């Protein structure tokens, strides 16, 4: 397994945001995560990427225990992430934004990675904005930059945090096409999303979280039809 | 390389924020040349004024790298100015070294002292880091006030044999036909000019390198930079140590010029940090051009308004607050709003 999360628990005082979580992602697999607001989805990403330290449990990535490994080292190990609210380096150009990820995430020189960065920009439709300051981008472009920057680190696992949120139907369709392209290159994907139809168009497996616990997992369409998932996630009886 | 013509991927033109204008480089060289030749014609007062301008600019450039790029808001840089000054005195008066060599050594030792200092203050975040650096600087001051051979709490002076032993003074005296004190100022002027150019060059090349890329990322979004593999702690530590070395050398030069040192003056938070922060803030933090403009403005104010005493400080404070409120990107930011220009092409907007 590429990612193995076992018995993961995170609490802030008496508030438990992740509880007895088990999750695996195989190399090249695409797994979706849904759950109501506050279900602990982004917390799970922060625990995997290293921004938060778990209260209990283990995270193994690529055969290595991530306990005590700092975020930069996790990135270099092959975990790339995007943020729900894009966090571009606003005073750097789009190209330089990618260079940061490529140079530091891959530990290579600017010369060695320049070509790869250009190709990622092209794949994500940002090439004509390559020399613009990242602060001048639109929301869709910022979301694309988040993905491009994460891809620049040459990840084995890409964590996508609500990348389709706030986009129009057409933009969302384009994004889905792009993510399917990325999958073809062999990158595993763990994707948190509220836009369920976008998620279902890509993923192999679906996980449902509620109050920090995993309440369902399996084949996406089958999971979506479970009455308890309907109850919790959509708030109606099936 | 892929030779398929259908692939536009082969024809990237890579630009970074602010392309390198050759013309700016030529102008910079010209300015340095003019400044180097200035003492031939300038009065002694002007030479002394420029020494002051040079070291304030060098200090400001260091603090800007520290606070504006690495996000390390230190209010304790006087620790390294004082340390450098005292090291110069110790190495020349007690060690019998040549002052120029002592300046270089002061830089090395300041860097060595910065490492354990960083281990303490880097445990603190934000406002606590700022206060921590200040406390550490106070500790430095109190320690040097205990050293009796260096004058303890009252301080000491350089002997004239030390101040005259700087290489070049004799030659300048003979060549320009001036008295020894004036020749000493001219040599100090050249050392100060060398130091400020070296500081500008060092900051420029740090910011142009891959470390500069990381520093730009840290300045804009620290957490996101960490998630992309940038080792924040290591880069901040490197910047802290490098600026300590530069600040220590500047401190040594300042006290070679002053020829008299005391703990209260050498570790003065007002002179070596508050004024420096003022320069960076009014000029424009997080840019290389800002501190240059700020230093010139500060020098002019000091030159023409310092006689008003307390009123001068009140004016300085008021100006600082006004700029923070109404032009947070400083005077350089105001210029950028009006015209899109770059002097140091290092990739900031």
UniProtKB/TrEMBL annotation, chain A:
GO MF, any single term: L-valine transmembrane transporter activity
Swiss-Prot/TrEMBL GO biological process terms: D-alanine transmembrane transport; L-alanine transport; L-isoleucine import across plasma membrane; L-valine import across plasma membrane
Assigned keywords, A-Z: ATP-binding, Nucleotide-binding, Transport
InterPro entries tied to this protein: AAA+_ATPase, ABC_AA/LPS_Transport, ABC_transporter-like_ATP-bd, P-loop_NTPase
PROSITE patterns recorded: ABC_TRANSPORTER_2 (PS50893)
Record flagged with keyword rRNA-binding: no
SUPFAM superfamilies to which the protein is assigned, alphabetical: P-loop containing nucleoside triphosphate hydrolases
GO cellular component term of the entry, any: plasma membrane
Main function: Involved in beta-(1-->2)glucan export. Transmembrane domains (TMD) form a pore in the inner membrane and the ATP-binding domain (NBD) is responsible for energy generation.
Annotated PANTHER family: AMINO ACID ABC TRANSPORTER ATP-BINDING PROTEIN, CONSERVED COMPONENT OF ABC TRANSPORTER FOR NATURAL AMINO ACIDS-RELATED
Protein name: ABC transporter ATP-binding protein
Species whose genome carries this gene: Bradyrhizobium manausense
From TrEMBL, chain B:
Intracellular or extracellular location(s): Cell membrane
TM region(s), chain numbering: 20-38, 50-74, 86-115, 127-147, 186-207, 237-256, 276-301, 308-327
InterPro entries: ABC_transp_permease, LivM-like
GO MF terms, alphabetically ordered: branched-chain amino acid transmembrane transporter activity
Residue ranges that the Swiss-Prot or TrEMBL entry lists as coiled coil: none
Name of the molecule in the record: ABC transporter permease
Keyword Membrane recorded: yes
Top-level taxon of origin: Bacteria
Main location: membrane
Keywords assigned: Cell membrane, Membrane, Transmembrane, Transmembrane helix
Membrane topology: Multi-pass membrane protein
Keyword Disulfide bond in annotation: no
One Gene Ontology term, aspect cellular component: plasma membrane
């Amino acid at each position: 397994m590429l990612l193995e999360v076992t018995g993961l628990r995170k609490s802030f005082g008496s508030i438990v945001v992740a509880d007895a979580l088990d999750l695996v992602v195989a190399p090249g697999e695409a797994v979706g995560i849904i759950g109501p607001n506050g279900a602990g989805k982004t917390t799970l990403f922060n625990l995997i990427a290293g921004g938060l330290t778990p209260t209990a449990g283990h995270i193994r990535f690529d055969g290595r225990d991530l306990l005590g490994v700092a975020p930069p080292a996790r990135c270099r190990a092959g975990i790339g992430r995007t943020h729900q609210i894009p966090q571009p380096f606003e005073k750097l150009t789009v190209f330089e934004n990618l260079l940061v990820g490529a140079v530091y995430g891959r530990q290579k020189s600017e010369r060695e990675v320049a070509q790869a960065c250009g190709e990622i920009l092209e794949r994500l439709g940002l090439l004509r904005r390559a020399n613009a300051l990242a602060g001048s981008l639109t929301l869709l472009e910022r979301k694309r930059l988040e993905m491009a920057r994460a891809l620049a680190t040459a990840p084995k696992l890409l964590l996508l945090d609500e990348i389709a949120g706030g986009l129009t139907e057409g933009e969302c369709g384009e994004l889905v096409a792009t993510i399917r392209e990325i999958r073809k290159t062999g990158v595993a994907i763990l994707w948190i999303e509220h836009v369920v139809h976008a998620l279902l168009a890509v993923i192999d497996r679906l996980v449902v979280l509620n109050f920090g616990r995993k309440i369902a997992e399996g084949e996406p369409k089958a999971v979506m039809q479970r009455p308890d998932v309907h109850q919790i996630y959509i708030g109606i009886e099936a | 390389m892929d030779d398929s013509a259908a692939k536009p991927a082969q024809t990237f033109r890579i630009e970074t924020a602010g392309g390198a204008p050759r013309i700016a480089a030529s102008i910079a060289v010209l300015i340095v040349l003019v400044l180097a030749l200035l003492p031939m014609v300038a009065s002694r007062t002007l030479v002394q004024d420029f020494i002051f301008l040079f070291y304030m600019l060098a200090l400001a450039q260091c603090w800007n790298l520290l606070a504006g790029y690495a996000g390390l808001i230190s209010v304790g840089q006087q620790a390294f100015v004082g340390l450098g000054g005292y090291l110069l005195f110790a190495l020349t008066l007690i060690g019998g070294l040549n002052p120029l060599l002592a300046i270089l050594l002061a830089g090395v030792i300041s860097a060595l002292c910065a490492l354990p200092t960083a281990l303490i203050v880097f445990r603190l975040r934000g406002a606590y880091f700022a206060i921590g650096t200040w406390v550490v600087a106070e500790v430095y001051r109190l320690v040097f006030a205990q050293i009796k051979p260096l004058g303890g709490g009252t301080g000491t002076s350089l002997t004239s044999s030390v101040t005259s032993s700087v290489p070049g003074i004799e030659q300048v005296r003979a060549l320009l036909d001036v008295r020894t004190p004036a020749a000493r100022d001219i040599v100090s002027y050249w050392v100060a000019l060398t130091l400020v150019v070296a500081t500008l060059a060092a900051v420029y090349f740090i910011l142009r390198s891959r470390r500069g890329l990381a520093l730009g990322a840290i300045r804009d979004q620290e957490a996101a930079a960490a998630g992309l593999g940038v080792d924040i702690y290591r880069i901040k530590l490197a910047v802290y140590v490098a600026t300590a070395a530069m600040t220590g050398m500047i401190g040594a030069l300042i006290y070679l010029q002053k020829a008299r040192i005391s703990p209260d003056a050498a570790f003065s938070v007002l002179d070596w940090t508050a004024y420096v922060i003022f320069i960076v803030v009014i000029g424009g933090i997080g840019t290389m051009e800002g501190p240059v403009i700020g230093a010139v403005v500060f020098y002019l104010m000091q030159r023409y308004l310092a006689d008003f005493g307390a009123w001068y400080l009140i004016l300085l404070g008021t100006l600082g607050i006004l700029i923070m409120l109404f032009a947070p990107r400083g005077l350089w930011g105001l210029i950028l709003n009006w015209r899109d220009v770059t002097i140091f092409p290092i990739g900031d907007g």
